[in-house]
Write a structure and sequence with these properties.
Blueprint lengths: L1 E5 L5 H13 L4 E5 L2 H9 L4 E9 L3 E2 L1 H9 L3 E9 L2 E5 L10 E4 L1 H6 L1 H6 L3 E4 L14 E6 L9 E5 L8 E8 L10 E8 L6 H11 L4 E8 L7 E7 L5 H12 L2 E9 L4
Parallel strand pairs: 1-2, 1-3, 7-8, 7-9
Antiparallel strand pairs: 3-4, 3-11, 5-11, 6-9, 6-10, 12-14, 12-15, 13-14
Helix pairs in contact: 6-7
Enzyme class: lyase
GO biological process, one term: L-phenylalanine biosynthetic process
EC number: 4.2.1.51
Length: about 270
């Protein structure tokens, strides 16, 4: 079975894919992709495929391209993985921090190390993956990449643990192109779409879950891209497909919402 992720070797997505393979004790054919869109597209078009994609970061919040893909593409969540995020500053051998004038990385990595970047007055620019930044290294230019990844390509960090917040975790989803979910899953992700834009939509959703004492561990909104102020809502419940959740879905349907189950899985531990 093919396992798709944002490559190349050494990215946080690669680490998440490696972690998933070890936990499942299954040998997958690893298929690194150049961007997250291609990861999702490959999974959507391949019945014999799994994808590992980042959904949210504890500092930066939701990864919008993945949230939108869950709306627009035929992919579904079948699991989750947590990865601790730790960045290093990689440069040429012998370089000192004082030698560096510019750094390269992906946008989320730049955002998560921006205080460090400003402290050292670095200029910065973006690349498609953290590992791609290693290709830009020169005597005055460095890369911000996952700690431990640069060594795979012959580089050594000149500074470590440079993220702005020590508690930095990214949650990845395990996606497939079908909705044959694990019947024993203890978490459910729903996509809730209002059929009309009117006051109190979110309150109605939250009150319905509260009525059945169902806890929500993730709430997110994404624009419908039809008119300003019109949103989809994601919610993740800490319950599987239970009778109580069926009642919630039935009530929301009666309240003029469209509800789609886009994930059922066991919470990561």
């Amino acid at each position: 079975m093919n396992l798709y992720y944002l490559g190349p070797k050494g990215t946080f997505s690669y680490l998440a894919a490696k972690q998933y393979s070890l936990e499942k004790e299954v040998i997958y054919s690893h298929c690194p992709q150049q961007n997250l869109y291609d990861v999702v597209k490959s999974v959507a078009e391949n019945d014999d495929a799994i994808g590992i994609v980042p959904l949210e970061n504890s500092i930066e919040g939701t990864i919008n391209i993945i949230a939108d893909s869950l709306i627009q593409q035929d992919v579904y969540a079948h699991g989750e993985i947590y990865v601790n995020i730790d960045f290093g500053l990689y440069a040429n051998e012998g370089a000192q921090i004082e030698d560096i004038t510019k750094v390269y990385s992906i946008a989320p990595a730049i955002s998560q190390t921006i205080q460090y970047i400003h402290k050292h007055q670095f200029a910065y620019d973006y690349v498609d993956s953290t590992i791609q930044g290693l290709e830009r290294i020169s005597f005055t230019e460095a890369a911000i990449a996952p700690l431990g990844s640069g060594e795979l390509y012959g580089f050594t960090p000149i500074d470590s643990h440079i993220q702005d917040y020590s508690l930095n975790i990214t949650r990845f989803l395990v996606i497939k192109n079908h909705a044959n979910f694990d019947k024993d899953g203890d978490n459910t992700i729903l996509l809730i779409s209002p059929k009309a834009n009117k006051a109190g939509l979110l309150a109605k959703i939250l009150n319905t879950f509260a009525l059945f004492d169902i806890n929500l561990s993730w709430i997110e909104s994404r624009p419908m891209k039809q008119e300003l102020g019109f949103y989809y809502f994601f919610v993740q419940t800490t319950t599987g497909k239970t009778k109580e959740l069926d009642n919630v879905i039935s009530i929301l349907n009666n309240l003029n919402f469209k509800v789609k189950i886009i994930g059922v899985f066991n919470a990561y531990s």
